Amino acid sequence: MTTDPIAAPRQPWHAGERLLQASAGMAERMAQIGPKIIRDYMPDQHRDFFAQLPFVVMGAVDEQGDPWAGVLEGLPGFAVSPDPRSLRVSAMPDADDPLRAGLGPDKSIGLLGIELHTRRRNRMNGRVAAATDKGFDVAVAQSFGNCPQYIQSRDFHFSRSPSLRFPSAPHELAGLDDAARALIKASDTFFVASYVDTDEGGRAVDVSHRGGKRGFVRVDGNVLTIPDFSGNRFFNTLGNLAANPRAGLVFIDFERGDVLQVSGQAEVLLDSPEAQGFEGAERLWRVHVRRVVRRPGALALRWTFDAYSPTSLATGQWPKSA
């Protein structure tokens, strides 16, 4: 009598993610839990969560192969899930947004739903199934939740209707100027897009959140050095960068609605002695900025820092940086 072999669970991790997981001694653990937490559909609570958001963060890749991160906004309900395997977004990047070049039928994108005032976040990566001049549908490839670590608590309001767009001529630069460096040095939050081209011939794009104390990103000319603190051990971003060293970052002026988008060459520093200069950092990564887009007043949203939140800097719960 013979029995059919039991198929091993499908592993969601690619080689770059597995490399980082192994370096942290988590390869076996991640191999066990990966198939349980990375789904190819959106659970109902994720579908409900996206439907209440006033903005989502998006990652896309342009014709040059450069990743970009940016923000799409709308009144709650502008992002809805008609069924567990799709998400419909009733918003498009502005004409001056570099995200626009990476959005089209069958293009791979990453989406992050995040509420700064509740510190909840869920990620959804997939492919554009359809697009018009008013929005697009995404076919879900991966859906998973993230913990609230390092999310600074902020309340939001709209300074104008999000349907009123004021795209200006973008300030395109080949590197960081003094104003860009000042915004980055003052930031406690940014978002990062990365991607890999898989062995199966597909592309997987991801966008994620990074946070810390104000000034946690070190700026040296056109080089950004970023501490990597203890997290969920998925290593989606650093795994992507290990396999494909390109990154797109977006910094937001939460009070003015200005957006600073940068893209460049990345490197992961697993054993650098420089990490000792960033309290709480387990490793570092760098971005050598090559392209910069500044978009003043691009967002209708404004955020107010919640200094009395139990997660505020005054509690001392946040890693410090040099």
Question: Keywords, please?
Answer:
322 residues, mainly beta, Pnp Oxidase, Chain A, eight-stranded antiparallel β-sheet, disordered N terminus
Q: Explain this structure to me?
A:
Residues 42-157, 176-284 form the Pyridoxamine 5'-phosphate oxidase N-terminal domain. The protein has helices at 15-23, 27-37, 44-51, 178-186, 236-243; strands spanning 55-61, 67-73, 79-83, 86-89, 108-115, 120-131, 136-146, 154-158, 171-173, 189-197, 203-211, 218-220, 223-228, 246-253, 258-269, 283-295, 301-305. It has 322 residues and is mainly beta. It has a single domain (15-315), classed as Roll (Pnp Oxidase, Chain A), CATH 2.30.110.10. Strands 9, 10, 11, 12, 13, 14, 15 and 16 form an 8-stranded antiparallel sheet that branches. A 7-stranded antiparallel sheet has the order 2-1-5-6-7-4-3, with helices on one face. α1 packs across α5 (236-243). The longest helix has 11 residues, at 27-37.
Beta-sheet strand percentage? 35-45%
The major sheet is characterized as: 8 strands, antiparallel
The gyration radius over C-alpha positions equals 19 Å
Order of helices and strands: HHHEEEEEEEEEHEEEEHEEEE
Q: Quick one: overall form?
A: globular
What is the CATH-assigned architecture?
Roll
Helix content: 10-25%
For the record, the count of structural domains works out to 1
- CATH topology title: Pnp Oxidase, Chain A
CATH class: Mainly Beta
Q: Strand tally, please? A: 17
Distance between the termini: 66 Å
Low-pLDDT residue spans = 1-8, 311-322
Looking at CATH, the homologous superfamily is Electron Transport, Fmn-binding Protein, Chain A
In round numbers, the mean pLDDT is 89
Protein structure class = mainly beta
Instruction: Quickly count the helices.
Output: 5
